[in-house]
Request: fold
Amino acid sequence: MEYRDSHGRTLEEYPRPSVAVDTAVLTVPPGGELTVVLIDGRRLPGTFLHQGERLQDAVLRSLREKAAIVGLRPQQLRVFDATDRDDRGWVISVAHLDVVPVDRLANAALVPVAELPPLLYDHSHIVELAVATLRDEYAAAPDPRGLLPEPFTLRALHRLHQSVAGRELQRDTFRRGVLEQLVATGEKETGGVGKPAQLFGVRSSHRARRYVARPDMSEYTDDAR
Amino acid sequence: MEYRDSHGRTLEEYPRPSVAVDTAVLTVPPGGELTVVLIDGRRLPGTFLHQGERLQDAVLRSLREKAAIVGLRPQQLRVFDATDRDDRGWVISVAHLDVVPVDRLANAALVPVAELPPLLYDHSHIVELAVATLRDEYAAAPDPRGLLPEPFTLRALHRLHQSVAGRELQRDTFRRGVLEQLVATGEKETGGVGKPAQLFGVRSSHRARRYVARPDMSEYTDDAR
DNA sequence: GGAATAGTGTCTGTGAGACACTATTAG
DNA sequence: CTAATAGTGTCTCACAGACACTATTCC
Reply:
């Protein structure tokens, strides 16, 4: 019943690496900057892939165990595979990004990515790659990661985008650019100072991305090879 | 000397997956369409990662052994990790893209991606992802994969871009768009019919990409984690 | 009214797309 | 000359950036 190759051996008779996952969990605290979750202030949460486990699930488990975080939708970035990258042995790591609203982060240690200290291993590179990926996404859709509860004002969305981008975005240009991706609820925000702002939701046709640079692979359930 | 975890066990005492690589090798035959290398007409070349081997090297080895191809610069696409994707056992696969001038392909079986037959496993998805990645790259630089020997005419570059894009590209718009990324050699093409065309090389500042959507990770030697 | 915020009119520059024109060669 | 290809002038449209204006609310 068991598979054997042309030498009569099973797969287990050949050397195999340990496979790890390491994850940059990014968020934007209300009114704050883009931040990342760190463990011990110098590394990202990670773990080893268990048998019968998907990479996504290993990520979610590592976030739960190492940082008491309820993750959402971890996304692969790339594999780090240098042969000497881990002194414990032969370990390759699949770097991930997850974006999580701040209220799911409990008391995890958040550090603004603009003030990132030197991290262990290649974790600084992972954060860089994660930030660039998130910026691409937010340049292409109003709130692809659902960081803002709907409905929201354009003011709140504008601030979120500025936090993600790490720079000022012109108010009127931003408004005109994003407006067609939104749908007005007809309601107005109450309780603030100044002219009440309209409330908006994300138009269903733009929940994901405005422009699809590459095909969205998330539809591939990947359950059969 | 050997590493032991808090349970006194080595990494080898835990179950580990076999790690495979599968690669979409793309090329454009002179004057032809964008094509992919297939084995048996229904799958991509691939192999298992060996101990002490980088993913890139496993890819190059698989191309050499399975398709008699001298690969160039394999690039990671993503990891496929469905637990049942391979009936031989627990196998995850790192999908790759490599782009190789047609003269290095010897007598490999080339199939136009526009007429791709159904492939085994998830290999159709890998080809799709590889094609989209290559189109992004060629939309951003004159010849990032070096498919065209320098110096070249704008006519030849135009045809290459149309082959990669899989559609017509307006001649004058293309010319104006790409011209500043090139440098004229001062020479002219000889032997053709019609007005002789200028010869160009790629300006050194545009060898890679015109626009960097995400940071180019190739600079990270990744030799230390 | 004054402060604060929401929302818009409009000018400018840039660049893609499109069309048609001119330029230079071989034969 | 004609055929064929190289290369350009120019119009249009869309849109980002920028500035300043108007609109509506709370106090």
